[in-house]
Write a structure and sequence with these properties.
Elements lengths: L1 H4 L4 H8 L32 H12 L8 H8 L5 H4 L2 E2 L8 E2 L14 H11 L2
């Protein structure tokens, strides 16, 4: 972020970071006297759908010990692995063999959602 908001030559700034020195390039937006952005653009935050909520509730009802807290559940839903989920096994409905918990259909269900938004939602679902 500091690089993008730096008012000096972008190429000079980048190469300086890696230990090289050059004169300003005269071609980048800063050398052309274009102002640095005050705020970087961001993507719109996705909503958690009713279908996602239903799948999360079903996951909670399965009562996996490694997903008993809101933070553990949020890590799982956003696709962050941990020993608690990577080395835990579950038996999917209708299956004959156990599978790793990270192979559960809800694993990384909300990977495109901000962690804090998912955490807020899971805190309302886990009592």
């Amino acid at each position: 972020i500091d690089h993008a908001q730096n008012p000096s030559c972008l190429y000079q700034n980048l190469l300086t970071h890696f230990g090289e020195t050059i004169e300003p390039c005269a071609h980048c937006s800063r050398c052309q006297n274009e102002p640095s952005p005050n705020r970087l653009p961001s993507s719109p935050q996705p909503e958690i759908s009713l279908q996602d909520l239903q799948q999360i509730k079903e996951l909670i009802e399965e009562k996996h010990p490694s997903l008993r807290t809101a933070r553990q559940l949020t890590r799982f839903l956003t696709g962050l692995t941990s020993p608690a989920t990577s080395y835990t096994w579950h038996l999917p409905k209708g299956a004959k063999r156990k599978q790793r918990l990270t192979s559960h259909p809800a694993y990384a269900l909300l990977e495109t959602h901000p962690f804090e938004n998912v955490l807020t939602q899971t805190q309302t679902l886990i009592f």
